[in-house]
Design goal:
Length: about 625
């Protein structure tokens, strides 16, 4: 998709100018690069107060026609997916565009044969094998709405997501390999399905070969595939039909099912992939995320395939069999663009640099970072040891809700600045607000907000449009409010400073503190709890839980039980690093927990507590300091 690409600062500047002068013409030109069964009647309709956003209204398409069929005419034999298995001794797989097309169509027919149709929700709880990407695309092929749940989540978390979206089919596997561990996915799914009445079929991929128990609605993936052929015309979708739901944590207990639509999401992920990474024909691109997160949806599957790229899917972890695995894989597949998270870089940085140096990284051209602010030390290590001072680093700011990268440099085209995500993409209008919601100009710090829609903005929260309005459009009317704060330098570069609400980013995973508190509170000995983040040198942030017990309890035993409870309810990623038993929590007179103060206490910043005189119970501060 050469037509999508800005290759020079002059092209980029021209695009920015057009995008701000004539946003609809700008996006229409980009949308024209894709295959539509019918073009749109209107480019954009929006109102950030209602709120309602629609792009390419009346346009008809199928995203898989653009990700697959279109490439069959020009590059059927090009590798679409390189699958690198968990075990380095197992062979990698190269799946061409024509093979991927055939496998997606066959899987789509398997779904249809099991009753799936346009608009149905299908939950996907699978390890990072090619079948996961195939499952996602098979849903899109028939217009079913996929809801991928990360295969590290617990049975309770899986069941809550299945029930919220009323999914009719679950796609899973017997188990999943991740490093030295084997996750019993089918067992976890079985436990979840005891409380999921909407599920009619559970289709199970054989991956690990472990023993699994078998229920009435269970079907083997390989047996179901044998019953169907690979001829499956793509369903004609309206531009605004939902493509998928992806759950993300919120500041109240319940996860938010962000809904993305077909047309705008396709246009924006392809456009941003092409420009941010400066992908060129023949390049091999690798994003190390899991498809269970938005980064995997947009920048392993849809964006790269829409532009006809070769995308690597890695089943394993950076530490297995040793901390050199990423670099071994880069050398093996001659990776050109490498996209990972600061938390991974910080973990790798702790190990001998020999683990990087012994691999030939000369193929690398572009490095990327996503998920949290990248600190200066990690940035420089990445630049020096991985990029050999020869690869631009794109620090990409975006969210599950934004669908695609909004603030970033374009590799080798626009200037980079360590620890700064830099500038908004052409077509994206970012502003800073003060606490009263006034736009502030120039070199300053404020609340990040976006003033005009871009095509891949999430359209709603599944089943709860009111919550969508409250979370993103009510705090600062007329703007989209992402929940992050930022600094801006004199050149207009943005440095994201972190969340301004109660979400903590642990190892690049967005964790709401409220669901963790709910899990803790479910323990019979817990009266109340509060969870906050504190800086951690590897994970970026870690969790500190303050817990009020209801009686004299043995605190070691309680904290062990609480860790296990959080792990079971939400998943191991949400286990607090520290659990502190306290007799009270600092509260306002209206009874609200003062999290701001707890954050300072957890970080040991005792001299920055601010004014505590307004507290209901200021004496609690000394107690918390004493036994921390
Ligand atoms: C893609 C993703 C979103 C939150 C977001 C930020 C933080 C993401 C960066 C970043 C600083 C970055 N989606 N965040 N990227 N902070 N610099 N380059 O991570 O929905 O899981 O999280 O992540 O706080 O609001 S997400």
């Amino acid at each position: 998709m050469e037509g999508l690409s800005y290759r020079s600062i002059a092209d980029y500047t021209k695009a920015k100018e057009q995008a701000s002068a004539q946003p609809e013409v700008f996006w229409e030109n980009i949308a024209n690069q894709f295959e539509w069964y019918e073009k749109w009647d209107k480019v954009l309709e929006y109102d950030f107060h209602t709120p309602k956003v629609s792009w390419f209204l009346g346009g008809k398409l199928n995203i898989t026609e653009n990700c697959l069929d279109r490439h069959l005419k020009t590059q059927p034999d090009k590798t679409a997916i390189i699958f690198e298995p968990n075990d380095p001794n197992d062979a990698a797989q190269h799946i061409s565009y024509s093979e991927l097309h055939s496998r997606v169509c066959r899987a789509a027919n398997m779904l249809k044969a099991n009753g799936a149709k346009k608009g149905d929700r299908i939950c996907i709880y699978m390890p990072m094998t090619p079948e996961l990407a195939i499952a996602v695309l098979a849903c899109a092929r028939i217009g079913a709405i996929h809801s991928v749940v990360f295969a590290g989540f617990s049975a309770t978390a899986l069941a809550a997501r299945i029930n919220d979206a009323e999914c009719s089919i679950l796609l899973t596997a017997d188990g999943g390999f991740r490093g030295a561990k084997v996750t019993p996915l089918k067992d976890i799914a079985d436990e979840a399905l005891t409380s999921c009445p909407s599920i009619n079929n559970c289709i199970v991929l054989k991956r690990t070969g472990q023993d699994v128990s078998w229920n009435n609605m269970d079907l083997w993936w390989h047996e179901e595939l044998e019953k169907v052929n690979d001829n499956c015309p793509a369903e004609v979708m309206d531009s605004e039909d939902p493509l998928f739901i992806l759950y993300t944590s919120g500041s109240t207990g319940k996860p938010k099912g962000m809904v993305h639509s077909c047309g705008g999401y396709m246009v924006y992920t392809a456009y941003s992939f092409q420009n941010v990474f400066q992908y060129q024909k023949g390049d091999v691109y690798w994003c190390t995320a899991d498809i269970g997160w938005i980064t995997g949806h947009s920048y392993i599957v849809y964006g790269p395939l829409a532009v006809g790229a070769t995308t690597v899917m890695f089943e394993g972890v950076p530490s297995y069999p040793d901390y050199g695995r990423f670099w071994e894989v880069c050398a093996k597949h001659k990776v050109n663009q490498f996209y990972t998270a600061p938390t991974a870089i910080r973990a790798l940085q702790k190990h001998p640099v020999e683990l990087v140096n012994k691999h030939d990284l000369s193929s690398l051209k572009v490095l990327g970072s996503v998920g949290e602010p990248i600190n200066a030390e990690a940035w420089h290590w990445y630049d020096k040891h991985v990029g050999k001072h020869n690869c631009p680093i794109v620090d990409t700011w975006w969210q599950t809700e934004t669908g695609g990268i909004l603030i970033t440099s374009l590799a080798g085209v626009t200037p980079q600045k360590p620890t700064y995500a830099t500038l908004p993409m052409p077509g994206v209008q970012v502003v800073l607000l003060d606490n009263e919601g006034n736009e502030i100009e120039g070199e300053t710090e404020g609340i990040l907000a976006i003033k005009h829609p871009w095509p891949s903005i999430a359209r709603t929260i599944w089943g709860d449009h009111e919550r969508y309005k409250n979370v993103y459009f009510s705090a600062y009317p007329g703007y989209y409010f992402p929940g992050d704060g930022a600094l801006r330098d004199a050149e207009g570069n943005f440095r994201i400073t972190g969340r301004v609400d109660d979400v903590v980013i642990v190892s690049g995973h967005n964790l709401g503190t409220a669901p963790i508190e709910n899990a803790l509170n479910a323990h019979e000995s817990v009266v109340e709890s509060a969870v906050v983040g504190f800086p951690h040198d590897v994970k970026g942030n870690a969790l500190h839980a303050f817990v009020i017990p209801n009686a004299k309890v043995e605190s070691n035993k309680l904290t062990d039980e609480l860790r296990a409870l959080v792990s079971k309810t939400i998943g191991p990623i949400a286990k607090p690093d520290r659990i502190q038993v306290v007799s009270g929590l600092p509260k306002t007179r209206s009874g609200k927990i003062m999290r701001r103060i707890l954050r300072k206490l957890a970080s040991g910043e005792y001299d920055q507590l601010g004014d505590v005189s307004t507290l209901l119970n200021p004496e609690i501060i000394e107690e918390i300091k004493r036994n921390s």
